[in-house]
Amino acid sequence: MTELNFPAGFIFGEHDEYMILKSTPLSRDIRNTFAEVYLAVKAKTRKKFAVKVLKPSIIRKFDRVINDFQAEIKILMELNHRYIIKIEDFGTIVDVDGMPSFYLITEFIPHGNILSKEYTFNQHINFSLQVCEGLAFLHKNKIIHRDIKPDNILVYEGKIVKIVDFGIAKFYSDEDMISSVVGAPAYAAPEQISKSKPITSQVDIYSLGKTIYTTITKIVPPPGGQITELPEKYLDCPWSENFTHIIKRSTEIVPSSRYKDINQLKNDLKKLYQKSKISKFKIKRVKKSRTSLKVTFAFLLFVFIITIGYLKKDEFLSIYQRFRSIEFFKRSENQEELLQKGVELFNLGYGEYNQARIFLEKAVKLKPDNPRAYPYLGRIYSELGMLDKSIISWEIAVRLNPDNLEYKINLGKMYFQADIYSEAVREWKSVLEKDPSNKIVKNLILAAEKNIK
């Protein structure tokens, strides 16, 4: 039996009249424990809207946060963003049985959430980019969503996402979340579940990372942990390394190890989107005609052999270096050769970082005291979200290059990201001893000292 009773024709609205069309709710959140959503029309325009009504038991249980929630809704009503559901009205209401409740009236999106239909990989990444823009807008206005998950990302006409249910997680108890539709708080950040740390915008980054993982793999992740790898069937995809990095870094257990802000995540998604578009084209062409590809390759090889006869020796060597295969270098035991290839791949940008890491790691294994490899490894580990390894690499780089101030600054930044503020200050102060006018380092020290209790 439902807690609420709103028959067809029931009127909501503080500023306009919104009339319930059907007494049966469109949906119920968290197995009927939280709220009910009804379809309504605005009396003046006959335009359809969604009315979400919180259950009286929730209102009584969490009356301490109602005022905060109402204040946040007022802010949201004044904001306007393409990828955020438009809130038309809100207020308190009493149903026909005299039960008090709280409601929101929003625009009605009839096409379901991002899992309601089949979308391509690129479409899902595009949706994720839109969500990033919406969340960046919220975070800029000091609002944390707190409950990003597939159910709360609707798709309008198959092209535009609408983020819904802002701040609703304030009303969740641990029991509510554990008994939710997915059986556990699959998308909630560890600090939300354990309540061990203050809630910051980092919870939205974590939840979006897990949401993206679910939209692509159709697998609901286990609660609270970090996702470190893709299912086996995705490992051969051209975009798998980039995608794995994004998911892994977004879902780091420690908030400070995640993306610094939602825009960093957005930038990596943009790179992934562009790479997947190129890969999709290449795969399509290969599947279309493998025989044609072999013929084309043989022809190009023939032209290459003929052409090198007309080139100068140094030009030939340059082309030869560019065309040597990755597999050749993987078998190499020449430390300088491995280092050179690792740096070359590093300079190609983020998409080649994992390959660069393989060569550089092998290079330092062959010659552990080579001072050139560790700064590159430090940068790569940092970009790949491997903060502990990045710190170790920068520590070795500083030890092998004690006069390099840039390395000391970078080591301090890694300590800062890991919340090891005293070590960060120590490194940066050693820089000031040799460069006392460095204003950037002075500001870094001030920022770190504020975090030292």
Characterize the structure shown.
Among the domains are: 11-107, Phosphorylase Kinase, domain 1 (2-Layer Sandwich), CATH 3.30.200; 121-282, Orthogonal Bundle (Transferase(Phosphotransferase), domain 1). The protein has helices spanning 56-61, 66-78, 121-140, 174-178, 190-194, 202-217, 240-250, 262-288, 290-308, 313-323, 326-331, 335-347, 353-366, 373-383, 387-400, 405-417, 421-434, 439-449, and strands at 11-12, 18-20, 27-28, 35-42, 48-54, 87-94, 100-107, 153-156, 160-163. It has 18 helices and nine strands. The strands form two sheets. Strands 1, 2, 3, 4, 5, 6 and 7 form a seven-stranded antiparallel beta sheet that branches. Strands 8-9 form a two-stranded antiparallel sheet. Helices cover 51% and strands 10% of the residues. The chain has 453 residues and is α+β, with helices and mostly antiparallel strands.
